[in-house]
Amino acid sequence: MPGHAVVTLADRRGVRNHLQSIHAIALTNLGELSSGLAMLSVLPAGTRGIVTGLDVVFEKKARGPLTAEGSAVAPMIHSLADGDVESLATAVIRDIERDIVAEVRVRWRIGLADA
Fold first, then answer.
1. For FRET with 40, which of 63, 68, 84, 113 sits at 20 to 30 Å CA-CA?
2. Which residues pair with 80 in a beta bridge?
3. In whole angstroms, how far apart are CA 34 and each of 8, 19, 71, 75, 84?
4. What is the rounded distance in angstroms from the CA atom of residue 59 to the CA atom of residue 96?
5. Residuewise pLDDT in 10s, the chain (115 residues)
6. CATH label, 3-112, candidates 3.30.565.10, 3.10.129.10, 1.10.10.10, 3.40.50.300
7. Which of 40, 34, 74 lies closest to 54 in space, CA to CA?
């Protein structure tokens, strides 16, 4: 079963840029948080993960409250016996009108935890 996480961000002065929209890095952080929570919810016992890459596509100026929906699929545990595997988590960030303002793809390296 895929992991899922929803995180919201209030529109406030501290996350706005000089154009009065939500800053690109605030959007990136929101996407990384929601996708990371989704990934952590599906990691098999005895594994660990670390982010190795992150891509963001900004679709629309972000204004108002935002909702990020993160999703991830657990790596196949039997494939970890041969070493670390790469896994992908994603997040879609929407505004109050449900328009997509950004999409985030996060690459993870998943491996067995040290004993």
1. 63
2. none
3. 9, 25, 8, 18, 23
4. 15
5. 688 999 998 888 988 889 888 999 999 999 999 999 999 999 888 888 899 999 999 999 999 999 999 999 887 766 666 678 888 999 999 999 999 999 999 999 988 887 4
6. 3.10.129.10
7. 34
